[in-house]
Amino acid sequence: MALQHEIESLGAGYYWVGSRDLTGNLQCNPYLLVEGDEAVLFDPGSVLDVETVVANVASIVPLDKVKYVVLPHQDPDLASAVPRLEALGMRFTIVTHWRTWSLVRFYGVKSPAYMLDEHGYALALATGRVLQFIPTPYLHFPGAVATYDKKAKFLLSSDLFGAFQPSWSLYADETYMEGMKAFHEHYMPSHDILKPVMEIFSCLELGAILPQHGSIITKNIPEHIEALRTLACGTMLGPVVERQVPEGEYRRPAEKTLFRVASLFGKDLAEAIGEKLGIEFDPATGAIASSPMADSLLWDRLFDAVYLMRGQPALSVLEPFVANLCAEFSLSRPKIYLSTLQQAERTYSSLGEEVAKLREMNELLRQTTSQVDDSTLRDPVTGLYNENYYRNFIDEQASIALGQEGLEDDVLAVVGIDEGMARIEYQYGPREVEAILKGVARILLENVAAGRHAFRMHGTTFAFWMPRVLFHEANELCETMRDTVASSKSFIEPITISVGLVAVAELGSMEIDPADAGSTLSDIGIRRLRLARKRGGNLICSTSETGKEVETKGKVLIVDDDTVNAGVVKTFLENADYAAATAKDGAEALSKIGEAGYDLIISELMIPKIDGFMLKEALARKSGTKDIPFILLSHRKDEKSVTRAYRLGINYYLQKPYLLAELLGIVQNLTAAGAD
Fold this sequence. Notes:
The protein is α/β, with parallel strands linked by helices. The protein folds into four domains: 8-229, 4-Layer Sandwich (Metallo-beta-lactamase, Chain A); 247-339; 378-550, 2-Layer Sandwich (Alpha-Beta Plaits); 553-674, 3-Layer(aba) Sandwich (Rossmann fold). 41% of the residues lie in helices and 17% in strands. It contains 24 helices and 24 strands. The strands form five sheets. The chain has a seven-stranded mixed beta sheet with strand order 1-2-3-4-5-6-7. A five-stranded mixed beta sheet has the order 8-9-10-11-12, with no helix packed on it. Strands 16-17-15-18-19 form a five-stranded mixed beta sheet, sandwiched between helices. Strand 16 (453-458) and strand 17 form a beta hairpin. The protein is globular, with a radius of gyration of 31 Å. The two termini are 61 Å apart.
């Protein structure tokens, strides 16, 4: 028998690199694939055995050869080791589903992600070997996947084919089947979800199944697949009540539901539902005066209407209430719950080993959270939370706040230092720049109260989150911070800040996905900060002050004597929320640039009076215009012209014909950079 912690070669470049210590009655199995100069680590494991896993991997390949870490789901027993791997200096890309990535980020990971759902559920290695990913949704996580390596004929199945085991061996024996069934009866939600995935697996050419838990299956593989294909699982899913309910027994639960809807979501929604269904009722009590349909039909239609008007989150909020009603009145659950929502969080009559497992996982997650170095979440200069933490925070908070109502609102302030830090660093040195950043951060922190958070986003830009405040109070608080910075004597020279202020309520008029609420909120705040700086700085810019101007992403001047081409580009940019103007020759362009500032110049090379190269040279001679980004367009593009463009500092040189979408992407990159 192999010694404890000894690696095992599985063939076809695969190795088992785990610990032989059994945690409870579950074994965690990390696997390593070595392919040419690359290595892929699957199911890296938890903080409990990360040292063993790293030592085992290092005994096979240098750690810098590990290019990818595959995470089939986000549970701590599989993914909590990732921050520790990063802390040891490993640099890799995390391969996972977007649903998994949205939760894995909360471990504090820094590595980039390869979203397999955006890449055809496949990963091609440098040698050409392809790993194919098979979605296994809700087994037992919405973003779960399995990995199939056709070359090796291996299926890395994640939680599927795992087993409860009183003792563990690397390879499954004849007693494995029952432990496997028990594991799936507890952890997999239903036969209806498990069966189709097993049918997919049955079509694969398999030499081995490598599960995250349990033992590797190399014998009787079809029998193991068939056992799960026909398994009745999902003990938390109690049988739906099936009985004939007298018609009148539906009326009272329907009335209680209307009353609950009015209480939770407002009388307006309850009345809108009543109008849609054609029923008359008292929103204050829910009592139904008349209904055009049978009460049993009304019971189902009522929840259909809730779903249509408020979506799945509203059904989720009502679910415990509905479960109680069904138990109280011996009713069937409304059909919308059976067809739209995954049934969850049922009470087990006997939890047995699962209780121990859940407690173990909760404790493991607590340990993982406490072990994540706080420095990964904070900016080293200011001590504020950093931009990575901010992105996660604002995405979550904005999506939650999006549906809230009332006079109070959640408000974001994007704060920027007006002075040029490059000049200050050149004149006084980097320590004075850090002192300024720390000073502004200190003033922000002085105003942090319950629920408020301060962040350093990038460069000289900060963010300040103020939940549940009146907008004018948020504005007054920012004015106080602005005055404090402007009057401070602690800086080496006078410093001012500008603020872009935006409320979550402003997103209500936009048709956006809640998942995009945070990024949208940040974008508006950054645009308003940019506008405040253009107006001279040391001020606060909000919707009430700027109107439509806030929505302008930047000012662009298009220089082209072909009015048709110039008009097309102008319209295209205006549709993308840019303020665009045109000039028919280089002289007119210089005049317009002198009269009004522009964030970007797009110029044809061959224009009258002053050509594109000469226009850029003229702009470069003046300190106020030398740094304006410049895009050159021309049918002519050869080595000589490219060399001259490079020497003049032209940012992009596009040859006609070009794609408008490509031009827009360049414009967005250049104007976004200018916002810093």
